[in-house]
Specification:
This is cAMP-binding domain of CRP or a regulatory subunit of cAMP-dependent protein kinases. With 194 residues, this protein is of the alpha+beta class. The protein contains eight helices and eight strands; from the N terminus they run H-H-E-E-E-E-E-E-H-E-E-H-H-H-H-H. The chain is globular.
Length: 194
């Protein structure tokens, strides 16, 4: 079944009957995106919650100096969106780009609202997603203020174990808040310590 990954994701938080699964999957739009394409760019209004079924997305911002700051990655089984823009329906600041050929399932904000009316337990599911996102964002902020680069890298490895060997070092460095050069030196030191 092409929807098994997303249905398993949902089953961690709510139980759906077969009829409810059919209603939910009818609201999803499947999309395949080539590597280095954008799902969302800075200034767009985010209209979809994006669920990754294969490939990988990254969410990032670009500062006034043109430096990219990676906020999150979304490997298979993960959701991603510009939460501010999705909720407020105002222009966002997040760029969401494919790192490789990627397949996603899109749930529009409009269809999400319809789901809440038809299957009220989806309000619980998406509340849990938003709460988890808030907790992760807060933890990242605390980590960036209080942990060393090595500790932040170790946290990255725990959060994204499947991505460690697949992502360019430059993007991991951006995620943990260091330059690629510093990251390369730090990893060399960590390898020698082992």
């Amino acid at each position: 079944m092409p929807f098994s990954l997303i249905l398993n994701n949902i089953a961690k938080h709510i139980h759906l009957t077969n009829d409810e699964q059919d209603i939910f999957t009818a609201y999803l739009q499947s999309k395949t995106i080539k590597r280095k394409q954008f799902m969302l760019t800075d200034g767009d209004i985010c209209k979809y919650s994006i669920f990754v079924t294969s490939g990988c997305l990254r969410g990032y911002t670009v500062d006034k100096s043109g430096i990219e700051h990676v906020l999150s990655f979304a490997p298979p089984g993960w959701w991603i969106a510009d939460m501010y823009s999705l909720i407020s329906q105002k222009p966002g600041i997040l760029n969401i780009e494919t790192l490789e050929d990627t397949e996603v399932l899109l749930l529009s904000k409009v269809n999400q609202e319809k789901l809440y009316l038809q299957i009220p337990k989806f309000e619980h599911f998406f509340r849990v997603l938003v709460e988890n996102s808030l907790v992760a964002s807060q933890q990242r902020l605390i980590d960036s203020l209080s942990l060393t680069a090595e500790e932040r890298y170790n946290n990255f490895c725990k959060r994204y174990p499947t991505l460690i060997d697949h992502l360019p070092q430059k993007q991991i460095a951006s995620y943990i808040g260091v330059t690629p050069e510093f990251f390369s030196r730090m990893r060399s030191v960590m390898v020698r310590k082992r």
